[in-house]
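Researcher: Here's a chain I'd like modeled. Treat it as a single chain, no partners, no ligands.
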Amino acid sequence: MLFIQTLIANPVFGMLQIVAVVFSVCCHEYAHAQMALWQGDATAAEEGHLTLNPLKQMGPMSLLMLLFIGLAWGAVPVNRSRMRHSYSEALVSFAGPATNIFLFILSSIAFGVCLIAFSHGDFGHVIKVFEYAGMSGVYALTPENNIPITFFHLMAVLNVALFLLNMLPVPILDGWKVYNYLFAGKLSLNSELAKGVVLLIIFGVFMGGDLLFRAGDYALGALNIVFFHIMTLFGGG
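Model: Modeled as a single isolated chain. Structure tokens:
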């Protein structure tokens, strides 16, 4: 099913997905541009990429593809020759995925706060339910289709998926330059074997994309278990 069909069938959920994707991708690209500037390369800054404007960070084609098929991307220009250190390029590349992890943590905490805020019952009751029934018990206390809970759930899961995807050792992704620095430039596309491995990884991403989002769900659940255990110290006794 095309994403636009989902958008028409459930416009509220579809719009929440669009906002989550656009904001996350723009933050990711902004982090690249800002880190590049800190490392001495002002190319992205000079071309106006120190912004969260999706038309600048993603472009019209990416936004249209997001609307119709649910896929989007972004890019910022960098000039390695203007960077100060040998590790600068790897640092610039990692800034985007690191931002996705930061957004995941913030969204997960906001998700946990919303679970408490919109649950039926006071804070102490929610914590007691968690102690005896776990996260599934807390979910049962919340209303269905709650917009803040849904949005922060989407944000958390999406940013884990973006982190994992971008850290794959594929040349078009951030992970390639990070690993290339860590392994002293030993990654190479000159051999047929290396090219074959890259193609297999790309194929695996398209075939197993659901695994990335499933990993996001597991990460969200794990972090919220920690969050609720901390909350028991403040109101569960």
